[in-house]
Amino acid sequence: MAFDPQTPNLARMYDYMLGGKNNFGVDRDAIDQLSKHIPEAIPIARANRAFLQRAVRALTEAGVRQFLDLGSGLPTQGNVHEIAPDARVVYVDNDPVVAAHARALLEESGRVVFLHADLLRPRELLASPEVTGFLDRTEPIAVLLVSILHFVQDADDPAGMVAVLREAVPPGSYLVLTHAVPTLGDPEAEEEAKNIYRSSSVGGAVGRTEAEILGFFGDFELVEPGLVEVTEWRPDIPRLVGEDRLPPYLRAAMGRKPGNSPSRPH
Question: Which molecular-function annotations from GO does this UniProt entry contain (predicted)?
Answer without folding.
Answer: methyltransferase activity
